[in-house]
Records
---
Amino acid sequence: MFSRRHAIRLGLTTGAVGAVGAAGGVFRTLTAGQPAAAATPAAGKASAAAPVEPFSVPLTIPPVLAPYRRTGTADFYRITMRRTGVEILPGTRTDALTYNGSFTGPTIRARTGRTTVVQQINALDMPTSVHLHGGNNPVAHDGGMMDTIAPGGKRTYVYENEQPGATLWTHDHAHHMESEHVYRGLSGLYLLRDPAEDGLGLPAGKYDVPLVLRDAQFDGNAQLVYTMDDAENRTTILVNGRPWPYMKVEARKYRFRLVNSCNLRIFVLALSDGSATQHPVRQIGTDGGLLAAPAETPVLVLSPGERIDFVVDFSKYAPGTRLTLANMLGPGPTELVGQVMRFDVGERTADSSRVPDTLATLPALPKPTVERSFELSMDEPGSGGHQAYINGRTFDPDRIDTHIEWGSTEVWTVTNKSATVPHNFHTHLVQFRILERDGQPPYPAETGWKDTVLLFPGQTAKLQLTFDSHRGVYPYHCHMIDHSAMGMMAQMKIA
């Protein structure tokens, strides 16, 4: 269970974070009487009106891309990156950067041990780079920030999928452009399944539902407004590209795959019926795949780049019940950012799915031989500066910051040295395990394989990583990607 102690350790208290919403009262219960402050607009700015009435549009599911060719060992896809006018706000068209004209981008469904080959065609007027976030791939197919596709060019990425099943995603990574490119739409789902997972009996098919979260700001013509490092004004919450949607669900179990594709926004999510009653969910997976065992939790904490798989059993609720997926963290007005989507519960239907007590076997951690420390910082708001740093240095593509011996196991201690700004920390190529948060063990939902870890101001996390797959130069960076575009990125060479 996610306890008050865990909430405090994550920084989820009024004093540590501020701007914590009170949606549904769940957070007040979680923090055992500590009042939660309402999420508020930025100082001096009026509360923005919603561009559409919340819960007035149905949730849509990103299209699944069909391979144009299949062999005995591989599936082949072709994707074109292009500008497209898409309907986000009802009855309007918004200019977006898309994969195959879809916002959110199309989903690739892959299998462990079966190769996926994707030809990416850049029909845009700026360079792009496609990174499979969470993927274990050689440098040539990682989609690094300097390894770009020129306008009018094409690139073929090969993913061997030699890793456990997991909820992965693709996004643009062209340095200094990735922030705006992802904000304007260049991201898509990559759902990797494996035989071990298939045998568990988890909800599947139409009951296995992706929920890709992002936030946005629109002008009066329904066009996206992009300003670097602007967390306060992106107050329209989108799920699968739809503003505050509703979803009609049967009274049975559903598996949901949450992806935070926002540039900066952190979510603290809970099911709410408008009362102070807690409605726990069962978290079954995180960035790198399934947890060892389900973790019951009343809140789901998700920073940019992180993924969470969870199960809700709607048979516990009477038909006609309406449950809001509430967000309890700002910035922004509660009436906008304090709600994400709504589930409308229908009639009970047959359900043979289950959530077993054992989901996966996590291997024993090898003994580390190297320890390193990393400090994340940036020019604080109001300082006049606009740069971000790892160990006091901004990103330099010609510099190797960390030299790693192939096959080694290391412990990295990562500290957020910023006084007011949260960060997170993402590694390419390798998944890690969280050993500690501020000297204490991680809570159960963080005990699986991770590639992104959230750090509020002053927090420290100790991570264990093993570098035994591919050699070469890979980045690590803050995945609040406005921060990485501002320089909070470095490179490791594994040799």
Note: Residues 1-9, 13-47 have pLDDT under 50 and may be disordered.
---
Amino acid sequence: MNPLKTSLFWRLLVWFVLANLAVLLLGGYVTRSFIEYTTAVEINWTALAESANEAYENGGADGLDAWIRDQRRDGVDATLYENGTALVPIRLPGSVRDQLPQWLAARHDLLMQPYPRIYLAVQQVTGADGHARQLVALSRTHSRIPLQTRSQILLAVQFALSLLFIALIGWWFARGVARPVEAMQRAARHMAAGELSTRVGPEGRRGPGELSQLAQDFDAMAVRIEALVAHDRAVLQDLSHELRSPLARLQLILDLARRSEAEQAAAYFAQAEREIGRLDRMTGEMLALSRLEGGLPGMEREPVDLAALARECVAKAGIETSARQLRLNAAIEAPAWVLGSGQLLERALDNLLGNALKYSPEGGSVELAVRAEHGRAEVIVRDHGPGVPDAELPQLFRPFFRGSNAPKAEGHGLGLAIVNRVAQVHGGEASARNAEGGGLEVRLSLPLQA
């Protein structure tokens, strides 16, 4: 799996980006507050004015400009005014620029705070030439901190905040990951101990996306394992129950054959051979149904033409129809292609035809139709036998169900159950109803291949 496509990666990325933004914003705020309220180095405005005057007298406007750049690096914007005019202009806020002429005309030292965290100083100074000048300075702090010191303080604060935020995010993610992992570990241990009803539950689904999905997949796997084990036990119980009667009959027949004369024993042995054949067929059907209900892991799917498959099944049923003088009328239209297992679909069609022929009276008829319409392929088989009581129709596809008409024909109650399961694993359905005029109509419906 590509880590870039996982929601866990993007969650971590987003949270770390947000943490870095918080560190930058909070770090800057904390640093400014720290510099303003904890440092004890106050700005000496008188000394600053004398320094500016000295720079101007020694170097003129260029010397003052160089001095201004040096002060700006330390967080102070300042210049000298003479006769109300800036010797080297600096940028001032509009409200300060409007009121500055009044403050300069007052010829007093001023220190005020026109905006939050902004200090304005007007300081009088007299040059060596006797000219009166005034320092006008703006500072974001009431204390002078060198630029390098401010950078060091900012880096230290951001480093401390980064560690704090990374620790908090790491703890939060570790907590979110540990809970579902521990829940899955407990569930796995219980499953290994034989408690197949164990589930991870809601606790495992409260984790990040991938872990929540893993917990759901684990629960789905546990449900599947429990169902398969329960199914295997049920199949074993059903098989043992269904085999008990024919095995008892076989034992009785062999016992009678052993005590009989040779001529009579031959008849008993022939009957025993028929019982063995019935046992073989029933066991084969049980195993087929068990494999179908097990979910057919790895079933190969390929395009299958139901129409062609139905023609083959009709041809195979020709021997039985001739022997019992039955008429098999096939109405097979254009090809009906579905995606699935040809072997399983052939078995389903054989079971449909076999069930219809089994309950048809001698000399009767069976109709088979295959058609493709509205995105579905349908196989319809109808006999003219006794039909099924309406109350028994919903149970017709249950394994080992034999209705009130069962004594009229041999069987184990597995044929239609196999048809229904084959339909389900192919995304279709099987249904049955009593046809008008008598007889049973069974319909197999499957989705057509796209």
Note: The CA atoms of residues 390 and 434 lie 8 Å apart.
---
Amino acid sequence: MIPMTLNEIAHAVGASLHDVREARALVTAPSAVDSRQVVPGGLFAATAGARVDGHDYAAAAVAGGAVAVLAARPVGVPALVVEDVQLALGLLARHLLGRISPAVIGLTGSVGKTTTKDLLAQVLERHGPTVATDRSFNNELGLPLTVLRADAATRYLVLEMGAGRKGDLRYLTGLAPPRLGLVLNVGTAHVERMGGGPADVAEAKGELVEALAGDGVALLNADDPHVVGMAGRTKATILLFGRSAQAQVRAEQVRMTGRARPAFTLVTPSGRAPVELDLIGEHQVSNALAAAAVATALGLGVAEIAEGLNAARRRSAGRLEVVERGDGVTIVNDAFNASPESMWAGLRAAKALAGTRRTIAVLGAMGQQADASAARHAEIGRLVARLRFDVLITVGAGDPLTMAQAAQSSGQGVTVHTVEDVTGALRLATGLLEPGDVVFIKASSEIGLSACARALAG
């Protein structure tokens, strides 16, 4: 965060000052929407959620070091009062970007955003000060909070951009106009809220490349026809990545190591270099290529990119997070969220990691699958059986039961259990586990299976 006076902030966001003794007081630290995360010199944004109203914590935030509160009403402590706190936070982020000049990279996609963002950040950090989205803070609140961590020294600003509906990316790119726009893929995540089909998802994701100026770069997945089709929606230069021969940044000689880690030869316009990722699953190749494409567009050579990818480690919890217990049980926690595409990738990765060991899948519902939800859950059940998982535990009623029934009727020999909730899943899995087992855990975030994964991992 670059230092700003309360007066400057008020002018930028259209706020009125209340209970402020010194309008020239400086905000010198990033903003927060959780009063427990306020740091001295920061700004506390009092947002009202379904369960908690940040205005009730304004005094605690100031006592914790906040210079002032961005609020929708006077709160009895120094405050900048606006009509819409979320909108004002976005305006402040846009104002800050007007005073600094990092390379702004926006990335979106149905799956893989956070892993790709983490890989890219680790490649770029070796070459200049980098600010990247924390965890999956990629919405109307998370993106401004990320931008407000940048300062005059920031060279690269990596912004994960989520889209739950059409128009979301248009709004986010208006707050932080990207110079580089990366689109990973088009899948079924949020399909229910976007219109019902892949074309609707593609329309929403393509808003990112539409926001690019003529001197920008659109980085598109050559292996996804919906993404390649976005080329006609941008004025920017196109750079393709993928395993396709037409991709300028591509992978050749892809193979899997004994630890289920993907290895390949990275090919860019500057040459070739070997890469072996410290992540499980062949699908990680696409994420690594996406990060490599951005780095290539920023002028890094193939050797520098490969070194960064080889050194990169998993940063975000709940995404194919592997924990080895002392008794030889391996927990694969992929429970942050779920879609058919990420279920497919995660199940295959866990099975590859297991080799000949016994495998147990603990699966819950995949949200927002619209009218195709039952069919997609049934297909996941059949996939579990085809991959020869030994045990399937489904959690919850409705679609998870459809998943269980499809696995049971496959005739592949998988043992199927159904439980009502997360507590039941934890109890059953704990009783079933034997030394050497590999347990894969996944569902949409609202199901809460992350708690089961953490408990099993100890």
Note: The CA atoms of residues 156 and 228 lie 25 Å apart.
---
Amino acid sequence: MNASNFNSMPQSEPNSAAVNELERIFQSQRKYAAVVKASTAGQRIDKINRLKLSILSRIKELQQAAFDDFSKPAAEVDFWEVTATVLEANYVMRNLKKWMKPKSVPTNMALMGTSSQIIYEPKGVCLIIAPWNYPFNLSFVPLIDAIAAGNTVILKPSELAPRMSALIADIIRDNFDEQEVAVVEGDGETAHLLLQKPFDHIFFTGSPRLGRVVMQAAAQHLSSVTLELGGKSPVIVDKTANLKKAAQRLIWAKFSNAGQTCFAPDYVLIHEDVKQSFEQELKQQLGKTYGRTFDARQNNQDLARIVNHAHFQRLNGLVQNALLHGAQIITGGGSDESQRFIEPTIITDLAEQSEILSEEIFGPILPLIGFQHIDQAIEHINQRTKPLALYIYGRNQAQIEYILKQTTAGGTCINGSGLQAMNPSLPFGGVNTSGMGSYHGLFGFKTFSHERAVVKVHFTTLDMFQAPYTPLVKKMISVATRWFV
């Protein structure tokens, strides 16, 4: 799946004017970084609050821009874009003064007479490359964290959501000088030009394939990176689960934003004893939520569209490939290319060679896979790359703990889906193929900060262990070594 849109190699010679403009912005931010580094907690809080108020004043414009880009429902804009951003802003503003204070740490006996602390300093000039699926949230939440840490930032929104990108740029220009925060709009070539710069930190949200491109570019300058990627996030539904609640929560989490969510449930592993009952619960809940016919669902204003025709064709191809190998559609399966609409679809009886089992779906298609024993479900998950999220539905606490110990995921939600991304007290991020590093709240502040170690020497006995290594010095070192060991 591809939530950003640039290829591994540029397709043409870069425009010299664009190159010069990016260099001008980068150098102006590099010069201004010292000023921002010296800013107080109060000054940073004022900037974040100003940004928050600006966002809240333009909600209607944001709703319209999201609808124009791919018919995102206003309620989903309010919840996943605005509310998530405001929650982050409020949490950061409440805690920033505490986070910025130097943190005293213990000193061991060998360093008697000294004191140690960690001070948090900004990394410097940062690049944020945001995706199209939640362009507002995934631009402004990391931006808030970067501002809190005292960095300058160049933000590259996705060209696949052009109206949202333009609004993001407008809001940034209303609130910041470009020497502190700048928005650079453009296509894949622009992203490549930016990645050639020696940024102090790069924060990228998108696909694992493009995450590798970003990491390779960052390696040229040894820039630190945060990669927020994706993958096939599984759901385990045990036979002890409340099937009705599980169906209700999965339908919302999977089909919000037409399934174009990095931590959306990708497939469901369901115990065979309750698989048929669960299929009926899903079918009933889907009909209740979005309508029972193709026409009703196509006319339902709560369903977004697929972002572009390439993604539409890819998703249709996954369904057709699964059917070719014997899969059965429980409900849905219809589409309308003229509107880039794909009906919410639940599919089962999938053959191992089906592409839908190996490729991240990133669309409104939910496969069901049966299992007889929990170890079969765990093995299925562990044979694949580590997911961004794992969802567990069940009421057997011992089994839930067993699943947690036997699997790895960026985050996990028990008897719910997607809510781990809404708590700013929790780190949000993946593992290996699903990501590198985390953010939100304190974790975001630390992501955009360098934790600097500082030792203050008040007095020390270590001077006596210095060269020249006379017999007496060697003996004292030997005694001290045995003592500390």
Note: The first strand starts at residue 103 and ends at 105.
